[in-house]
Every structure is written in structure tokens, then in C-alpha cells.
Write a structure and sequence with these properties.
The chain is of the alpha/beta class. It folds into 2 domains: 212 residues, 3-Layer(aba) Sandwich (Rossmann fold), CATH 3.40.50.300; 54 residues. Helix content is 36%, strand content 26%. The chain is built from 11 helices and 12 strands. Strands 5-6-7-3-8-9 form a 6-stranded mixed sheet, with helices on both faces. Strand 6, helix 6 and strand 7 form a beta-alpha-beta unit. Helix 3 packs across helix 4. The protein is elongated, with a radius of gyration of 24 Å. It starts with a strand and ends with a helix.
Amino acid sequence: MPPALVFDRISKYFGEARALDEVSFAVEPGEILGMVGPNGAGKTTAMQIATGFLLPSSGDGSLMGRRFSDAAARRQLGFVPDAPVFFQGNALSALRFAAALNDLSPSREAMERVLTRVGLTEWKRDVRRFSHGMQQRLGLAQALVHTPRVLILDEPASALDPEGVLKVRTLLQELRAAGAAILLSSHQLGEVAMVSDRIAFLHEGRLLRYGRLDELLESTGEMDVVLRNFAPDAAFQARWGAATVPGTWRIAASEARRFLETVWTRGAELVSATPVRGDLTTLFLEWTKDERAGSEASRR
């Protein structure tokens, strides 16, 4: 089955300002791609191109095998912006409006099911008076009312309470299991890590990291070594440092053999040696720091 969403060396310039620089990625059916990066990285620009709101300056791409601006393709797309805006009316009228844009006239029962699915129980009040969190839930309901095959979500849970965040997480997992292709952007990196199959890391318009999340998090290049019956002396601590917790040393993986030979000759008993698995927040900070350091060095 071909990818549902494809970016092929897409660039976008606003005058001389570069927003995207030859960005390439794909989202498969039944997959969640988490797009992360610092503010100004180009995430929102990429989403606006994918939805057909912006034209790329160069490069190519497709939505369900058609051009991004193709009307038939866009009927298979659900989009949730960071700050959705609504006309006067209640939640049901907001859903009717979104459905009409896709040539649908859902029953009241069908709309109530969608609202319940996103955890929105207030249907009668003017939606302009909703809290930010309630408006995010309604925006998600609008994106789902026509059962799209592709979802593009920009910060879909940033204003939600913990219960709402959990509901959105569960909903995304259900949609993925049903075959939807989902492009998700969020600064809630823990949530991105919980639901994403792959990660695309953008920085200043360039795609710097792209791959399966489990592979990116596989190892930090360090190991936690747990020892028993070992009392380090001053010389050992000067070379290897103090234990991170009693009996445990965190060392570079490249130094593991030398470390183990040293402690064995000193009579230590090895309990375990485990590669340290990274987390997305730590990797995000490392990637951003490395890129900024490289940019500063190139300017010197």
C-alpha cells in the first residue's frame, strides 16, 4: 500500500526567509509520525503545505496519491490547527458545518457519537464561549466527523487536562489501529513518544533526524553497571567517578570492557550491565544543542 502522505524534497521560502529546506518524509496508513522541533523549526509550515493552505516553493508531494490541493484528496483529510476558530452556534452546528465542507449530512446520532468519542459533553452552549480545552476537543471532532483516512494534528492536546490527554492518546491509538495515517506535532514530547511509530525532527527548516522511534531511543552510548561486594578507593573514583546510586556506575559504552576488567581485578561481583535507553525529551535537547553549536561554529 502506498504512503498516505509524502513530502519529496519540499522547500518553502517567504521572501528570502527559509521556512523549509528540501524536507522529505512519508506517513504510511496505520502509522503515527511525530513531528518535533523547537519553535520556528518549520512544523506548522509543513502542515499548512500538506493541507493545501500553502504552496511549496520547490519539491513535490502527495496526499492519498494526489496533489495536496486536490479536492478529492482533501475530503479524506482531517486537520486540527493549534488554535481552532469557530462561528457562532453550538457544537452540533459546528460539526454540521465541517461535514458540509465534505459534502456530508450526518445524523444527530452520528454527531453525538463523535462528540462523545472526543470527551465533549457540552453541546448546547455557544462554542465561542468554550474553554480552550473544549475548543480543542471540538476541533478534533470536526476533523473526525467525515471519517478521514489521513489526520494532521497540530498540538491537539496542549490545553487539555490529564484525563483529556489520556483520552486523546487512546483515540489516536484506536485511529491508527483502524488504518488512519496520522501526522502529529506537539511540544508534549512524552505524549509524542507514547503514540508515535516514527519521529521527524526539524530544526530551522531542515529535517535532521528521521526514523523509527525505537531505533532513535535505542541507546545513549552509555551503560549502567551494577556491582556487588565492591568498595571503590580514591584512585578508582578518580578514574571512573562516584557511583550514580550506591553500587551503580554509569559509564561510556566504549569503556565498558576496560571498566569491567578493572572491577573484576578488584574482586567486584557483576550484577548487571545495561545499555541506557534514551527518552525523546533528552534526545530533543541534545539534537537542538548540537545543531545550535554547529551553527555557531560555522559562523565563526
